[in-house]
Specification:
The chain is an all-beta fold. The chain is 0% helix and 49% strand.
Length: 88
């Protein structure tokens, strides 16, 4: 994809985790810029997260490798990323 990323880049995430509130989630642009989409302690007591977040990524080029970064702020709980995708 050429051109700029949209101002409403959809980041679709499906994560299974024993305590979603432990997780901080960022989408990383091709140039390394991190766009926070969920802070830890938000949505705690939830065990599954299946949502779409809108990110203003209009300052970025759309072309390149986009990554998802998930940080677990507390030990003792397990989980996994079931799927994630970007919708330009």
């Amino acid at each position: 994809m050429s051109g700029r990323a949209p101002a409403d880049l959809d980041v679709q995430i499906d994560i299974k985790h024993e305590d979603i509130g432990d997780l901080r989630i960022d989408v990383i642009a091709p140039d390394g810029t991190a766009y926070p989409i969920k802070d830890e302690w938000q949505d705690w007591i939830v065990t599954d997260l299946a949502v779409v977040y809108a990110v203003d990524a209009s300052s970025q080029t759309a072309n390149g490798v986009w990554r998802l970064r998930v940080f677990d702020a507390r030990s003792g709980h397990t989980g996994y990323i079931d799927s994630w995708s970007l919708r330009f």
